[in-house]
């Protein structure tokens, strides 16, 4: 592995990022929407093995109070080598100075994020576009 890190997005292939989310598997994320969501994020992190995009994540942040880490993805062939942890740690480091750093975890991944210092929140709530799918996968209760 020849891992390199990028924190800006001017050279990102959005179709490659879309493919990464599908392979990860974290669902279908259209390239055009990824370009918007990453473009509107204060912090981004991309991992490459040579020139192949193998990992990504982003954080929405307001610069002082709250940073929200989301959309962490790592190619399955690279999982188990500490790269996912490094993506999250890069985003935590970029988010330093915010009063709180919040993270949305996919069901079953809570233990991974707990090892990085994240605690479960008792009062977090959300409205989802596809509520039935979120109930079915265990993200929210019915």
TrEMBL record:
CDD domains: NAT_SF. One of its GO terms (cellular component) is cytoplasm. Residues 1-139 form the N-acetyltransferase domain. This is GCN5-related N-acetyltransferase. Pfam families: Acetyltransf_1. GO terms for molecular function: N-acetyltransferase activity. It comes from the Bacteria. Keywords: Acyltransferase, Transferase. Gene3D superfamilies: 3.40.630.30. It comes from Sediminispirochaeta smaragdinae (strain DSM 11293 / JCM 15392 / SEBR 4228). The keyword Transferase applies.
